[in-house]
Amino acid sequence: MAHSPWRNATTEVHAGYSPSGDHLPMTVPIYNTAAYEFPDYATAAALFSLKAPGFTYSRTGNPTVAVLEERAAALEGGVGANATATGQAAVALALLALLQGPNHLVASNKLYGGTMDLLTDTFVDFGATVSFVDPEDPANWAAAITPKTRGFLLESVSNPLATLVDLRAITAVAHAAGIPVVVDNTLPTPAAYRPIEFGADIVVHSATKALSGHGSVLGGLVIDAGTFDFSDAVRWPQIAGPKARYGGDTLLGRYGAKAYLMLGRSKFLHDLGPTLSAASASSILTGIETLSLRVAKAQSNVLELAKALEAHPAVARVHHPSIATHQDFALAKEHYPGGTGCIFSFDLKDPAWVPSLVDSLKLFALAANIGDARSLIVHPAAMTHCRLSESQLAAAGISAATLRLSVGLEDSGDLVADLLAGLDAMAPSKGAAATAVRQTVNA
Ligand SMILES: Cc1ncc(COP(=O)(O)O)c(C=O)c1O
Predict the structure, then answer these.
(1) 352: which DSSP letter?
(2) How do residues 126-166 score in pLDDT, each as one tens digit?
(3) 112 lines ligand 1 (CB under 6 A)
(4) How far is it, in rounded angstroms, from Cα 347 to Cα 392?
């Protein structure tokens, strides 16, 4: 495992870059170029045959993007990373490199809706099979393994209900069966939770969310711990078997612990082209510089909001592990001491209240994103998870009365007042008078 010599807040600012070249620019330059001139023919031939490291064409690598890849790998404790145009591409590439042919994936039944679309529709069209399990009991994962299983996929904190996992127990089940575990760590980010420390083999991110942090750019990352044993050429022919594409060599023989990432870069980024631009990488790098600060502020806002919602008579249930009655309360304290990120959900007592509550809010924008500096709200059943069947929604714990919040960086008192004013219109709380007084004072 590659370790940054620093704690995360320092890594966020420094990893992967120190000023160099003629002008010593303090920030990472944006290499706005599609191609790179080769000094001579022999260098070009060596680079194109992947025998020498370097940049040939920005679809498979760019110096600005490379700094982001190194910084993300350092933050998660991986050996390297591949950046992608979106988080959706990161999830797809991470899995494509494992599921060659009619192979099988075991996946959590609590996943972002776009990932569910990928697994239940596109991957099925290409011959893969997927078994969905309730991720919270490791025995469910063990029971779903078949001889064709080539990966486990789960979210470290699930979208939208913020359910948690005992990742150490799940990775133990997977590794005993020779299966790598892919963890989508978008919600907590490495500032709060580092899946590789709990046994994850591959970490994916939508960098669109809290990593970039301002809702202004799309991006994704695949980070490899570099520790999974891909040496069985029968199970992993794409990594351990000889390939004409690599002059008859095996990726494992050529690249060792970076073989999986080279498969992603030299085959899938090259052949499919979901590449991150240098300008987007620059935005994400700027966002990452303040990641720890933003995650801590959003987390403290989340705790205030969860407490206020829990006490409100219009709310049936708050789905956040800081609530003492939540099923993951103990797990959160033990495995997620840094918090779980800026997302949580709550159920209204009556689903008919959803439209008027959403329309009444002044600070929570109705927008399908998370991890923004601004607070956002969605109705998953009608929006982000609208293509899930009734039974898939039920398995994911999402009802028609569930609303998801992505909590931003505003003042917590303002956020609580905005939500409580909307809820008081449905079912007045004891705090309604206080809210009215505050509004009068502010008027
Ligand atoms: C947990 C999670 N993973 C992946 C994605 C996909 O990322 P993107 O929208 O950047 O493609 C999302 C998007 O909401 C997400 O919430």
Answers:
(1) G
(2) 999 999 999 999 999 999 999 999 999 999 999 899 999 99
(3) yes
(4) 17
Does the beta carbon of 85 sit less than 6 angstroms from any atom of ligand 1?
A: no
Q: Are residues 279 and 310 in the same domain?
A: no
The residue with tokens 């609590």 is 110
Structure tokens at 103: 């192979």
Q: Which domain holds residue 381?
A: 291-442
Q: What is the pLDDT of residues 72-95, one digit of tens each?
A: 999 999 999 999 999 999 999 999
Q: How many domains does the chain have?
A: 2
Rounded CA-CA distance 317/315 in Å is 6
The protein residue with its alpha carbon nearest to ligand 1, atom 9, reads 87
With a 6 Å cutoff on the Cβ, whether 88 touches ligand 1 is yes
Same domain, 334 and 231: no
Q: Which one-letter amino acid corresponds to residue 332? A: A
Q: What distance in Å separates the CA atoms of residue 19 and residue 28, rounded to the nearest whole number?
A: 8
Across the chain, mean pLDDT equals: 94
Q: Which of 93, 110, 111, 112 to mutate to test the pocket of ligand 1 (most atoms within 8 A of CB)?
A: 112
Question: Would the CB of 109 count as within 6 Å of ligand 1?
Answer: no
Give which of 439, 406, 403, 400 is closest to 421, Cα–Cα: 439
